[in-house]
């Protein structure tokens, strides 16, 4: 399933980049929802189904991850760097599950319909409760900030390894040859 022992399996790479695009879109939509009351309802109509799609994709990614062999980290990564990479990856997976579920629970507690598209609605997963809604709304916001920070850490680490260290770390997840060479 892997193209080489130094790369993730092709399906893993496809899922990774699909999820990266969806998460970036979701972060921009979330910021726009807060900043623009005029487009709020249109953005929410995109935000809800995209969040559920992220949840579904996170399940698929986790199953795929458990069924494939991971390529080793480059030898240039220190034990501390490997530890931080593993922890941030686990945090990203946790947030990919937690944010959609907290959002779904928040809407349920707020007694809002969870419209996916047209007549398709999700069932509530929590009882209507204004206090719980307020708590989950705050939690959803804080988790979104944590996702953004973790995403930036992940991206900056890959860029550091790609541009400064030049250890071809990006090639582990690249869909095509990057042409990047070691120093």
Provide structural commentary.
The protein is mainly α and 183 residues long. It is built from 4 helices and 2 strands; from the N terminus they run αααββα. The chain has helices at 10-35, 40-67, 79-109, 130-165; strands at 114-117, 120-122. A two-stranded antiparallel sheet has the order 1-2. Strand 1 (114-117) and strand 2 form a beta hairpin. The mean pLDDT is 91.
Describe the SSE topology.
Layout: H1 10-35, H2 40-67, H3 79-109, E1 114-117, E2 120-122, H4 130-165
Antiparallel strand pairs: 1-2
Brief write-up:
The chain has 183 residues and is mainly α. 66% of the residues lie in helices and 4% in strands. It has a two-stranded antiparallel ribbon with strand order 1-2.
Overall 3D shape? elongated
Fraction in beta strands: under 5%
- Class by alpha and beta content: mainly alpha
Percent range for helical residues? 55-70%
Q: What does the average pLDDT come to?
A: 91
| Total helical elements | 4
- Poorly predicted runs of 5 or more residues: none
**What is the strand arrangement across the widest sheet?**
1-2
How many individual β-strands? 2
Radius of gyration: 19 Å
Biggest β-sheet strands, sense, barrel = 2 strands, antiparallel
Query: Between the first and last Cα atoms, what is the distance in angstroms?
Result: 29 Å
- List SSEs in N-to-C order: HHHEEH
Keywords:
single chain; mainly alpha
